[in-house]
Each structure stands twice: as structure tokens, then as C-alpha cells.
Design goal:
Number of strands of chain A: 17
CATH class of the largest domain in chain B: Alpha Beta
Shape of chain A: globular
Number of helices of chain A: 12
Distance between the termini of chain B: 25 Å
Distance between the termini of chain A: 45 Å
CATH topology of the largest domain in chain B: TIM Barrel
Structural class of chain B: alpha/beta
Largest sheet of chain A: 7 strands, parallel
Oligomer: heterodimer
């Protein structure tokens, strides 16, 4: 092929003057086709792409070059790629974003141990650290991980070191918090966390104050106020549109107010109004914050969370939560369509944290990709009260690609089969 | 992470058993016998009342099984059980293993039909001294044992010398005492353990007496002495590790990264019961066990014959099909399936201990044999015969496994792939009678609004 092009090129040169416009177009064609042949590092062929941002939900191939999405189209020829991976029968999605996890600070699970095997390429730490200790844990954790780790910065300077530290109103410093977010680590720090406060709205209000200064959302765990505060007031008066309510489907006797009324099992009307206002509802499953008797009635009455996330930490990892793909599958089991599950684990969280460069497969975007098998069978999914629903589908991460590199390959899809070399005696 | 009210991942069965069900049945029978005898006499009413008195507590006593795993295929290599049986747990211990234990005697019944019930698995080679330093010792390269144990049917992990006599107390208080998974340890002969600085190369830090003393203070928890990561030519470190193991009557665990020692010399110095890990590695710093022609080297077979044990120690570079397959065909089998789980190995061809076990299943090892090497064999090699079995009275560490048919790929450390048609998955993991992993909610009740 190269020789042919060379001949055409030489012939064209002879008639250069006459055919200058043709020459130009041929040169363009040659360079672009050569570039094609050289530049595609990985071609995922035969899969079904779900890319909610770009409204793609069909069989397509996807090419990766130099760590970025190079092309998404039907039938990209295999001979243009260095490595073609057959993903027939599998779903290709943007790398999953787990918007609520705890992976910073010692004693936390490793991001890389839970991310890639569940299709996750970006984890957002939900306020494990504050402005006093974030730089330390960034160097210990974020800088060493293969997973992209972003973070909400706790409104408390020391983060989540203990419940008592978290009550210290004197350590809630919106200016220090906002400066670290917007001046020191913009894009890496994506918002402010308020959590576990026992008093009034002070913690939320300080977080929102910082959120305004840094122009980022706040995420609130409203779990431990005694007595509990009105969530309607939180949604309608204290939150700005874009602020995040996490542990949406938590139901604790005598604890935080639930979104579904415990007697009538009806979603409280102001919840719909709040979502309409732009309040973001995050799952944040965790060890104690996902109850079917909240999630199922809510879903049946037309309320869906905006973001699906795990709240991964030591106590949640081996319970009903398990990992991100299990939490996603749980929503399939209660009836949410696959494309809606993917939207809430990719493009939605990317928008919420103002990282529109993530969560999609647009050409030029960093090649963070998940390839899932949608297993068929009878699977049990538990909530935190150990009740279960049976589902017939389960997402299993077959292949995870981070910035163009294969970082998880469950069954060696990207590798050739090995045969024992024949040896003579 | 709010709503942190600890999820009840299982019932705590530990302390609510007062009576035992077998002797009570006996009492009932004696009472019945007396009753029948007395039928001849006149005191029928009194006798019946007496029987009822015994029967009533008899019924409630019969409910004392905390957890009954029913209908599964029990593989318990120590007790040579390989058949359909039920397993009853009382007060955190194995109460009974028998066919058809009645469900009404149990507070909780798990239907394990179609599943295998095995002793809780033992991962012989891990690095779990997780902390915030660079590297393994109290470091970010180590993993939390609970992060990969329960979901792989593992109830016991053995740390491969990430701590030494200097650092073990810190390791114990930070990790061992705080984990749900049982954590045991090989103690490095290097006082600091497996740190990245040169401390582990310092022969003066390799103190036999201090190592032996630390082992003596932690009986059963420290299960041997590890030598690894020494770049020098002196045999002093190796010999000191071996000496400390000998005095403690425990195995020597020989890891890798001993580039100046030949494989033959290492094996020659090892005694029966000592363990060579990374058995099937193919890396420049150690001679392979299989030669270029595909033959297991004679001195390796000789060592095996003498009783030297071989652990997989898969890791990121420690398992190659061109070693493991010929070795298996020539009779050199791993005694245990250590994964060498750490930051860089966990997402490679290794993945989980069940994935490593599945490799051997697909290479032709029987289910019984795979489970034996994943439990009872491993337990014996670290002299913890109380573990790795389902004998009545043992601590109830149990793995309920499914073997999934399908088309699977398995990858070695050289990115070579073989295909297989079976894969092991952990459905339920029980540690000391408590459910610590339940993949599909086998022990959960169906949701009703």
C-alpha cells in the first residue's frame, strides 16, 4: 500500500503545476491513512456502546490512540489497529465514576483494589480529609494510585478523623477550604463535604459558604443531627441548585428524616420539587444507607437518584454494598433500564462535579472505558437490613481501560492464547 | 459514610447457647422409657407430666443451632468427607456435619444446594501490614486483609514477613487485632520486616534471639520465619532465619529477591516442612524450577522428596504457565495457593485466590485437591491443625463456593492466557460462625414492603 501511494505521489509531483489542488488532497489522504494505521493502539470491536452524553446506544467500534478516544464508528477495520479486542456481546461504557467513596487516609481501602475490577476509573473521595491534611494524603494516596482520584474537601480542617473533631465549629473555615479547592487544587478538589454534624445547620451553611467562594457544589451527609433537622428546609432554603444530598435511600428509626414517608410509603412532595430545583440526589450506599423500603417505592413513584455511588469504606465493602458494579446491578434489579444506570454512573456525576471532560466517549476525551458483561441468571441483591431482591441481570467488568491502558482484564480478552512450546528431550 | 450504624452483616452467635441438644434428646428418651415402664403402674398422669416437662425444653433446646448450611456438597479433606452433607454451627464452632440435619433445629438455614462447602480458605502469602509509609511495612503497597479475604472465601491470611521482631507489635495492634479475617504472620529475620530502606540488608538487625522471643510471645499467630529481599552473598541471613525457625519448631518461609543465592543452595539448606514460595516464577533473579527443556530440575524433585513444600506465591511475577504446567505433569504440585496480594499484583493475572485456585482446577486438578491445598494442607504447613477443617468442635470458618461453568480466560505473570471452562466463586464466607460475606444474599430474607 505504501509503495502504491509513493508511485501516485511521484506521478503527481511530475504534474505538480497542473494538479496542485489534487496533490494537496492526495497528500492529505496519504498522511491521514498512514496516521490511522499507526495511531490506533487499541480497537474494541463488536461491542454495544452506551454513551449517554453523546446519545449513543448501539453496536459500534471504538478506537483508542495515544491514550485518547480516537474514533467511535461502525465497522472500524481491524487492520488499522495494533491490538484489536473482540468484545462481541459486551457493553462498552465510559469509565465509571464512583462519586462517593472513602479512599484517602490510612486504614481506608485502596482505590485500585475496588475500582478497576468494577469498571470504575474515577473515584471521588467524599470528604475524608480537610484543608489541614489533604496535601499529605494526596501525596500518599492520590499520587500513587492508577485510579483517577478526585475529592470533596471536608468543611472540617482535619476531615473525618473522629466524630468529635467533626463537631468543632471553630475548625470550619470556609476561606481556607475554598482557597485550597479553587487556588491550590482546582479540578482535583471538586466540592465541599459536610457530614455527621450533631447540631443545627451551621455545618451545612459553612460548607455552602465555601462552595460559593470556590464555585463548587457541596455534598451533605445529613445523618446525625439530634434532633433531626428538616430535609425540606435543607433542600429549599440552605442548598443551592447543584448541591448534593447523599445517602438518599437511608431509613433510620429516629434518625435522619427519610425522603419516603415511613407510614404511607409515598415520596414526600417537596422531594420532587427539590430535584426539579436542581438538588442532586446521590445514592451513597454505604453500610447503613440503602434501604429497599425507600428505594423501591421511590422508584415506582417516579423518583430516581441523579447519581449512583458506593460510599466504599471498611464497613461497607463486605456487606450489601460490595462494589460499584454490584450497586449498579441493584438498580437494574429494581427496574431501572441499563442506559439510565450508566447515565447515573458516568455523565451525570461528571456534570455534578463540573468535570465535563469525564464520563463520556467523545473523540479526543481521555480513554477511560469500561467493558461489561451483562450476566444472566438469578442474583440476589441485599440492602443494609439484609433483605434481598432477586434480579436476573448482573454487570461484571470484563475489561477496564484507564487513559488508554488496560488496567483490568478479567478473562484475558486483550491477550492471545498461550500454547505450551514444544520442547525436545 | 454517615449512617454508620454498623450494618448487621450477620448475627453474633457467640454467647447464647446454654444447653446442648444431643444429651437432652437422651434425657427425653430416658424419661419416655420410664414413662412406658410406669404405664403398668398407676401413675400415668404424673409420668406424662414429667415427659412433657422434658419435652418442652427439649423442643426449645433443639432450636439452638445458630446457622445450618443445608444441602451442600461438603469437601473436608482432613476428615475425608467429599459428599452431600449439612453443617451445623453453634456458638461459633462446628457443631455437627451429617446428612439431613433437620431445619427446624436451626435459627437460620442457608440453602447450599448445588454449592460446595469447604473449610475457610487460607492464603499463605500476603502482605497486609497496611499503613501510610512508602512500600510494604506499615505501607501503602500492603492491602487490608478484609478487602480481599472474605470475598474470596478466605478466613485466614498469613503475612509473608512484612514485619520483623522490631515492627511486629505495631503490625499486631494496627492490623491483626482489628481485622475480621484471621491474620497470622511469618516474621522476617530482618528486624524491620520488608521496608524499602537498607535496614533489611543489615545483618546486625537479624537477631535470632529477638526473633525467637517475639515468636514465643505470640504463639500460633507467628507461624514461621521468613527470609527474602537480601542482595548480599553472605549466608548469615539465611542461616539465622533457618536457626530461628528451627528453635521455634516452625517452618522457614523462603521468599524471593535473593539474587546471590542459587536455587540449589537454598533448597539444600531447607528442611522438611520449610516452604519455598514463588515456586513457579520465571524471573532473572532466581533459577526456575523447570529447565529449558521442560524438565523439573532433579535437585528440586529431590528437595520435594525430602519434604520441602512449595507455595504458589503468584504475585505480579511469580506464576508462569511454562513452569507450573510441566511441573504439575511431573509431580511438582503447590502445597498451598498463596497469592502474594499487593498493590501491583492484585489487578494482574492473579486477581484473587479463587482465581489462582481456578487456574489449577482448569489445569486438571480435582475440586477436592484444590480445596485441600487451599485449606487443610496450608493449615498443616503452618502447624495450625485447628484450622482448615470442619471437624466438630473446630472454629466455624467456612467457605461456601460455587463452581461456575462457562468460558473463562486465565492469565499468568507473562501475560499468557489459557482458556478454561470452570471458575470458583465465593457465595458465602463464615468466620467463627459469623457471616462475613454473602454474595447473593443466601442468608438474607426476601424483601417485602
Amino acid at each position: 500500500m505504501e509503495i502504491q501511494f509513493r508511485i501516485i505521489f511521484l506521478e503527481t509531483l511530475r504534474n505538480a503545476r497542473k494538479a496542485l489542488p489534487y496533490l494537496a488532497s492526495i497528500v492529505l489522504a496519504v498522511t491521514s491513512s498512514l496516521a490511522n494505521a499507526q495511531e490506533i493502539d487499541i480497537l474494541l470491536k463488536g461491542g454495544h456502546i452506551i454513551d449517554p452524553k453523546n446519545n449513543i446506544n448501539s453496536k459500534m467500534d471504538i478506537a483508542i490512540a495515544a491514550g485518547k478516544i480516537f474514533r467511535v464508528a461502525e465497522d472500524i477495520p481491524s487492520n488499522t489497529a495494533k491490538n484489536t479486542i473482540d468484545v462481541t456481546g459486551l457493553y462498552i461504557t465510559p469509565g465509571i465514576i464512583d462519586m462517593h467513596a472513602h479512599v484517602l487516609a490510612p486504614g481506608r481501602p485502596h482505590a485500585d483494589a475496588f475500582s478497576f475490577r468494577a469498571g470504575v476509573t474515577t473515584i471521588v473521595d467524599a470528604g475524608s480529609t480537610g484543608w489541614r491534611n489533604f496535601p499529605l494524603y494526596k501525596s500518599l494516596t492520590i499520587d500513587k494510585a492508577q485510579t483517577r482520584i478526585l475529592a470533596f474537601l471536608n468543611v472540617i480542617g482535619s476531615g473525618m478523623m473522629s466524630r468529635f473533631d467533626e463537631q468543632d465549629v471553630n475548625d470550619m473555615n470556609p476561606v481556607m477550604n475554598a482557597n485550597m479547592i479553587s487556588r491550590l487544587y482546582p479540578g482535583l478538589l471538586v466540592g465541599v463535604k459536610s457530614a455527621h454534624y450533631w447540631g443545627d445547620f451551621t455545618s451545612v451553611d459553612k460548607a455552602v459558604e465555601s462552595g460559593k467562594l470556590a464555585n463548587v457544589p457541596v455534598i451533605v451527609d445529613f445523618g446525625e443531627h439530634t434532633p433531626s433537622n428538616s430535609i425540606e428546609s435543607l433542600f429549599m432554603k440552605h442548598f443551592r441548585p447543584g448541591d448534593i444530598f447523599t445517602h438518599t435511600f437511608s431509613e433510620i428509626q429516629g434518625g435522619r428524616e427519610s425522603i419516603v414517608d415511613e407510614a404511607s410509603r409515598k415520596v414526600k412532595p417537596f422531594v420532587f420539587a427539590a430535584q426539579k430545583r436542581g438538588i442532586v440526589f446521590d445514592v451513597g450506599h454505604g453500610a447503613g444507607a440503602f434501604n429497599f423500603n425507600q428505594a423501591i417505592p421511590a422508584f415506582k413513584q417516579g423518583f430516581s437518584p441523579d447519581v449512583i455511588s458506593t460510599d466504599l469504606y471498611q464497613l461497607s465493602m463486605n456487606g450489601a454494598m460490595k462494589d460499584m458494579s454490584n450497586v449498579m446491578s441493584k438498580f437494574l434489579a429494581i427496574g431501572m433500564p441499563l442506559k439510565d444506570v450508566i447515565l447515573r454512573s458516568t455523565w451525570n456525576p461528571a456534570k455534578v462535579i463540573k468535570r465535563p471532560d469525564l464520563g463520556h466517549l467523545s473523540v479526543g476525551a481521555e480513554a477511560d472505558i469500561a467493558v461489561f458483561n451483562l450476566e444472566k441468571g438469578n442474583f440476589g441483591f441485599m440492602d443494609v437490613r439484609r433483605s434481598k431482591v432477586i434480579g436476573t441481570e448482573k454487570l461484571e467488568a470484563q475489561l477496564t481501560i484507564r487513559a488508554g491502558r488496560v488496567v483490568w482484564d478479567l478473562n484475558g480478552l486483550s491477550l492471545p492464547e498461550w500454547t505450551m512450546p514444544i520442547t525436545s528431550n | 459514610m454517615g449512617s454508620e450504624w454498623a450494618e448487621s452483616t450477620g448475627v453474633d452467635y457467640a454467647d447464647n447457647v446454654k444447653l446442648i441438644f444431643k444429651p437432652c434428646k437422651l434425657l427425653i428418651m430416658i424419661n419416655l422409657a420410664i414413662t412406658f415402664k410406669r404405664l403398668k403402674i398407676v401413675h400415668i398422669g404424673a409420668a406424662l407430666a414429667g415427659t412433657l416437662l422434658f419435652l418442652v425444653p427439649g423442643i426449645s433446646v433443639a432450636q439452638q443451632i445458630d446457622l445450618l448450611i443445608k444441602g451442600g456438597h461438603v469437601v473436608d479433606p482432613k476428615n475425608k468427607i467429599d459428599s452431600k452433607m449439612d453443617v451445623a454451627i453453634v456458638a461459633g464452632k462446628i457443631f455437627k456435619v451429617a446428612p439431613n440435619i433437620p431445619s427446624q433445629d436451626a435459627k437460620k438455614v442457608v440453602d447450599a444446594s448445588g454449592l460446595y462447602v469447604s473449610p475457610g480458605l487460607i492464603n499463605m502469602h500476603t502482605h497486609v501490614y497496611a499503613g501510610s509509609n512508602v512500600g510494604f511495612t506499615d505501607g501503602t503497597s500492603s492491602q487490608l486483609p478484609d478487602a480481599f479475604g472474605p470475598r474470596a472465601g478466605i478466613t485466614t491470611v498469613v503475612d509473608a514477613g512484612t514485619s520483623g521482631w522490631r515492627t511486629f507489635p505495631d503490625f499486631k495492634s494496627k492490623v491483626i487485632d482489628k481485622s475480621v479475617t484471621r491474620v497470622l504472620a511469618f516474621l522476617s529475620i530482618a528486624g524491620s520486616g520488608y521496608s524499602v530502606d537498607n535496614a533489611q540488608e543489615n545483618i546486625d538487625e537479624m537477631d535470632v534471639q529477638k526473633t525467637v522471643a517475639m515468636i514465643k510471645d505470640n504463639p500460633g499467630i507467628i507461624t514461621g520465619v521468613r527470609i527474602g529481599r537480601y542482595d548480599g552473598t553472605s549466608w548469615v541471613p539465611f542461616d539465622r532465619a533457618s536457626e530461628a525457625a528451627r528453635i521455634s519448631n516452625l517452618p522457614l518461609f523462603v521468599e524471593c529477591h535473593l539474587p546471590q543465592y542459587t536455587l540449589e543452595d537454598q533448597l539444600k539448606r531447607m528442611r522438611s516442612g520449610d516452604i519455598m514460595t514463588h515456586a513457579f516464577e520465571n524471573v532473572s533473579e532466581r533459577m526456575t524450577v523447570v529447565d529449558d527443556k521442560g524438565k523439573v530440575r532433579p535437585f528440586v524433585l529431590e528437595a520435594k522428596k525430602r519434604g520441602v513444600l512449595f507455595d504458589v506465591g503468584h504475585g505480579g511475577g511469580g506464576f508462569w504457565f511454562n513452569q507450573a504446567i510441566p511441573a504439575m505433569k511431573q509431580g511438582l504440585l503447590p502445597n498451598s495457593f498463596g497469592t502474594d496480594e499487593h498493590r501491583t499484583s492484585m489487578n494482574s493475572g492473579m486477581k484473587t485466590m479463587l482465581n489462582v485456585m481456578s487456574k489449577y482446577l482448569n489445569l486438571g486438578m480435582s475440586v477436592n485437591d484444590v480445596i485441600a491445598r487451599g485449606s487443610w494442607n496450608a493449615a498443616q504447613s503452618i502447624k495450625r491443625e485447628d484450622l482448615g477443617n470442619l471437624s466438630e468442635g473446630s472454629v466455624a470458618d467456612i467457605a461456601v463456593l460455587s463452581i461456575l461453568p462457562g468460558k473463562y480466560g486465565f492469565v499468568d505473570s507473562g501475560n499468557n492466557k489459557i482458556e478454561g471452562n470452570r471458575k470458583i466463586e465465593a457465595e458465602l464466607t463464615v468466620r467463627a460462625g459469623r457471616i462475613i460475606w454473602d454474595l447473593n444474599g443466601l442468608a438474607a430474607t426476601e424483601f417485602k414492603l
